[in-house]
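User: I'm putting together a teaching handout on how sequence relates to shape, and I'd like one worked example. Could you take 3-deoxy-D-manno-octulosonic acid kinase from Marinobacter antarcticus, show the sequence you're using, and then write out its predicted structure as tokens right after it?

Assistant: Happy to. First the sequence, then the structure tokens directly below it.
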Amino acid sequence: MADGVNISRERDFVSIAHEDYGGIVTPGWFDPDAWGAAAEPVSSGGRGGAWFVETADLSAVLRKYLRGGFVARFLESAYLYLGEKRVRSFSEFRLLLELHNDGFPVPKPIAACYQRTALACYRAAILVERLRDSAPLADSIGHLSLGQWQSLGMTLRRFHDAGIRHADLNCFNILVREDGFYLIDFDKGEIKEKPKRDAPWKAANLARLRRSLGRLNWRQAGAGDLESRWAALEEGYQGNVG
């Protein structure tokens, strides 16, 4: 055990687990079929490849790493292996562990794995805690007050001030819960050292979120208009809240 985690190696299969789960994590934990009826596909957002896992002892989200775009036609779930430090599931696990331990609103990581395959490639998966009684921002816009949009802006600013860059900040990777907002899916995320207040990546992060919100049907959701909600988010982000 190192840094509060357990690492297990079985030939080409390697897993890392939060210390709370000790040595009970097995390769079957990363196989939705092994969970049987306890695993239910996640239907909202993403490319698929995610399942809710619910048992008497575990409430989690299992996600396999899948490619997008043109390359997905040929290598849907395979990634070039360039050493364990660059395995995407392990990088996300360790980032989530650091953020969770520091009190940021992210899901607690449970375990991650990768398996070497032919042609110097690997496949990977991750298990994180399920944030119960939450819903994606995309499904919640009709229920949020202007004050909550301001609160979302303040939450995003907290991440940015700490140098935390989410690689795919969109309205499905923000969850809304009674106690606030949570960011999920930190694949390819990173912590930048000594971030400048006006660093370009921060503006790009927010622009990506706005584009995803712009694709939603605000009228059908009874959510008012995007402009006024986004203005409230920016007020919170800039700290202009009375």
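A couple of points you could highlight for students: The first strand starts at residue 5 and ends at 10. The chain has two domains: 5-129, 134-238.
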